[in-house]
Design a protein that fits this description.
With 172 residues, this protein is α+β, with helices and mostly antiparallel strands. It has a four-stranded antiparallel sheet, with no helix packed on it. A hairpin with an 8-residue loop joins strand 3 and strand 4. Helix 2 packs across helix 3. The two termini are 24 Å apart. The chain has two domains: 41 residues, no CATH class; 120 residues, Alpha-Beta Plaits (2-Layer Sandwich). Helices cover 36% and strands 11% of the residues.
Length: 172
């Protein structure tokens, strides 16, 4: 790691907690393990930010004339969510970056009096997330981003992994 906050970073993408535990046990069985001291860890699961898609689903269902909290609304919402899950499966199951460089940072939203993110109107939060996402998209060709959520698993709310994207053999 470059910097003073750590000597070694191990990042594991695994499909479930059992596979992650298996990876942890494999690392603990390595010869180098006797020289390592874990002073920090972070556990999270890959997630998708749903501010945009949630708004779009509600707008589409309302435009169809469906009423909230009805069986028809619930069924139509589930169909749209299933379609989105299929379209976003590559983001939910990311390819492990082959780059030797990685930037990781855990994050959380403010909850202080007068600055509580969750007390802001949904439309304002959605707009801020959209603006933030548009900045990140400018760098999509240079940086692969994996966002993981950790509410209930760790001290932070989510983590962000940034690395150069995996390149094919012809892109050098």
């Amino acid at each position: 790691m470059l910097g003073h906050k750590g000597d070694l970073l191990l990042l594991h993408y695994r499909p479930d907690f059992s596979a992650l535990l298996e990876a942890q046990l494999q690392v603990s069985g390595l010869r180098i393990a006797g020289y390592l001291e874990a002073v920090n860890s972070y556990l999270s699961v890959v997630e998708l930010g749903l501010y945009e898609s949630t708004r779009k689903i509600y707008e589409e269902l309302a435009a169809r004339g469906l009423r909230l909290d009805t069986a028809e609304w619930e069924q139509s919402q589930q169909e749209l969510l299933d379609r989105q899950r299929a379209a976003m499966s590559g983001r939910l199951n990311p390819e492990v970056p082959s780059s030797r460089y990685l930037c990781f940072y855990p994050m959380g939203r403010k909850r202080d009096a007068g600055e509580n993110w969750y007390l802001q109107p949904f439309a304002d939060r959605q707009r801020m997330m959209h603006e933030h996402g548009m900045i990140g998209r400018k760098y999509g060709a240079e940086v692969k981003q994996v966002i993981s959520g950790s509410i209930g698993f760790d001290d932070w709310e989510w983590g962000v992994d940034l690395s150069p994207p995996t390149r094919g053999p012809s892109s050098g």
